[in-house]
Amino acid sequence: MNKVSIDEAKIPMAMEIIEKAASLMAERDCVQDQKAREELAELQDRLMGLSGNQRLQITDFQRYWSYTSLETMVRKALMAPPSKDNVSDEQIKEIVLGILKHEEAEMDWWLEYLKVNTGLVNLTDYIFYPNLVGLDMQATLEQIADKIIADRT
Asked: What is the Cα–Cα distance from 56 to 64, expressed in whole angstroms?
């Protein structure tokens, strides 16, 4: 099973890159303005090189401040994408029981990890809106874990 890890030394550089990209996208037309588009592509390349994640899209960080902090966005960017593992029922239960104890970036990573490893595209509904998947809104994390295990594909 994967573990979430971040090279803390990369955080300041990633913060600088994301902040520059967000400012550039807010101040200039990065579609029509060739120079702005090139600057954004350069920032994209730098962030992918720093993180090692070739699936990152710099445009995902546009207006991040409207819903989260720069540090959370940077931590998400520096986390390796979750991979498909042979996850046991016990491991799923362990992840679900501990999921709400994590900071936002790490919790999001574990939610994505569960999504990848259970095939449940609506995985967040299980945790935050259990009534949408046939459970009581007040369902315990153990009940939610059991439902995820039962419903995984």
From this structure: 14
Burial class (CB in 10 A: 0-12, 13-18, 19+), 15: middle
Buried b (16+ CB within 10 A) or exposed e, 109-130: bbbbbbbbbbebeebeebbeeb
As a three-state string, the secondary structure of 103-125 is: CHHHHHHHHHHHHHHHCCCCHHH
Confidence (pTM):
0.80
Mind listing the pLDDT tens digit for each residue in 1-16?
A: 667 889 999 999 999 9
> SS3 breakdown of the chain: % helix, strand, coil, rounded to 5?
65, 0, 35
pLDDT over 70 (residue 123): yes
E-strand ranges in 34-142 read none
Are 48 and 111 spatial neighbours (Cβ–Cβ below 8 Å)?
A: no
By CB atoms closer than 10 A (0-12, 13-18, 19+), residue 76 is buried
Q: Find the angle CA(17)-CA(57)-CA(42) to the nearest 5 degrees.
A: 45
How many CB atoms are located within 10 Å of the residue 83 CB?
10
